[in-house]
Amino acid sequence: MPDSFMAVNIPGMLSRGANNVVIALSEDEVGKLFVPEDQEGLNEEVLKMTFANQVNDLVVHFRRVEAAPDQTTQMLVMERLYPLDFRAYEISRRILWFDVFEHELRQLHRAGFVHRDLVRMAKRPGMVYDNILLTQQGLRLIDVGISRLQQGVGKRFFDRMVEKEWEEMEQFKGFFLNR
Q: What is the pLDDT of residue 1?
């Protein structure tokens, strides 16, 4: 990762993950910066995000790939989401949002997409449910970096990943509905 990614104050920075930085581009778009050595990672994310976007609206929408503002790397341009604090809403409304989320996740699984990062691993930076955001449109998923398509891993391995994801969904359900 270039030293510029490690800087504390990147103009427009919204968040930093293990391998990438996300910057604000406008009120409607963000850019996920990729180092030049990770062109394959960028291409894989575009493929997986495009696949998921064709199934439903659960995963943040891919817009395009373009040069980053500093012209030294490429970025994946996506819709900009504005997270809400779920604790401001009644349990009955949260149940409805969760039911829709669960239904849309099942659709993705049936189509051959598994997110794999609903619950962050303990050693990774960030909060445990950082990749699940409540927005005006309901619950949404971001960061498809470690997601998998069934066509790339085979049915048996894919099914095991889906099973683990449902275990993570149960954990998230308890968090989302009982706080």
A: 41
